[in-house]
Amino acid sequence: MVNRRKDGSLYQEEMTITPVKNAAGDITHFIAIKLDITERKLAEEQIRQLALSDPLTGLANYRRLLDALESEIKRCGRSARPFALLLLDLDGLKAINDAYGHQVGSRALARVANILRVHCRSIDTAARYGGDEFVVVLPETGSEAARLVAQRISEESRSDAEEPSISVSVGAAIFPHDGKTIDELLAAAERALYRVKRSPKRRSTTESASHPDD
Length: 214
Prior knowledge:
By secondary structure, the chain is an alpha+beta fold. The protein contains 6 helices and 8 strands, in the order βββααβααββαβαβ.
């Protein structure tokens, strides 16, 4: 339960009520013990966040990503409105690790995570998918809006002034057009991502799963 301190601030409280009986076994009164459990609740929330967060980047981890995707699929089933999934790849991470060391490579991943954190809405979910890959779930988002978000993220990564320079490639998939399950959406976004990576001109670092060659 929530209680209020003398200074007006709220805090989490736990109360235990114990009956007190007389010699005949009748309840004569009750004793209530109240404990301020604010710090315990904060510690529990920190543990919960750690269980759902990637330790390197602070973004959502794979488990939390799956939860977000399952929630969006259910929501879209009710509202019939699409959502977008972006699959991002940090270009040349191995080259960065080889040239500068793994600590700088880890910093490069954190820089991408910071870009996603800044440029995602509060309703979006940015997650580290694994290795050098990230996923962004964009509720209430169609293909054109997803393309603009991906383009903005790509531009921000290229304009990052910190050395070594970084860039990302992005593939997009739209529910339900490009897939109706989590696996189908991720596979569609991965195909789009690798079309970008195979492109000889690499004029754009963003590609949609909805492609005329598919």
